[in-house]
Amino acid sequence: MWRPGFEFEERYPALVYGYHRSLCIFSHVHRGTPERPGLVLGLDRGGACRGFAFRVAPSNRQATLDYLREREQVTSVYIETWLSARLQSSRSVTAVAYVVDPAHSQYAGRLPYYELVRLVRQGQGISGANIDYIRSTYEHLYAAGVRDPDLAALIAELS
Q: Can you tell me whether residue 155 is helix, strand or coil?
């Protein structure tokens, strides 16, 4: 959300219904390994999620989709999904999102809290320590006005 990696014209605070932000994906590359997985966030079924919608120029649409597919489909744990996002203006737009595939072997589902803590503590991958990912995500969400009490509690536990 804070480092989209593609050219965009505008960024809007948005709300998506039917999915929630969750530490539900075993990370085997960026924040862990298959032998010592970490956890990363994904959009999982149920609830609602606050985040951002990016408006991309029509001339950049295909290049943006190609980039996102390459970035998000490293292990095919996500399903590319077109869904409705409600902007702060109450206007709804159609947006692409990558939601977790519950049939994928990296889907962790809803884990007990002690297991979340253990996996985040052990996670270390090509992009660094899992705890750094959690802290950075929390800080960026907080700065953008998005409150996530679950991440806040995890940060307090791991500090």
A: helix
Query: Taking CA 138 as the corner, what is the angle to CA 73 and CA 38, rounded to the nearest 5 degrees?
Result: 50
CA 151, chain centre distance (Å): 12
Q: Is the pTM of this model over 0.85?
A: yes
pLDDT tens readout for residues 56-83: 999 999 999 999 999 988 889 999 999 9
Start-to-end CA span in the chain (Å): 24
Q: Is 30 in contact with 126 (CB distance < 8 Å)?
A: yes
- Residue 98: closest CA among 84, 82, 79: 79
**SS3 state at 87:** strand
Phi, psi for residue 65 in degrees, rounded to 5: -60, -40
Where are the chain's structural domains? 10-158
91/87 Cα distance (integer angstroms): 5
- Helix, strand, coil percentages for the chain (3-state, nearest 5): 30, 40, 30
CATH of 10-158, one of 1.10.3470, 3.40.50, 3.30.70, 3.10.490: 3.10.490
Q: How far apart are CA 100 and CA 77, in angstroms?
A: 6
DSSP 114: H
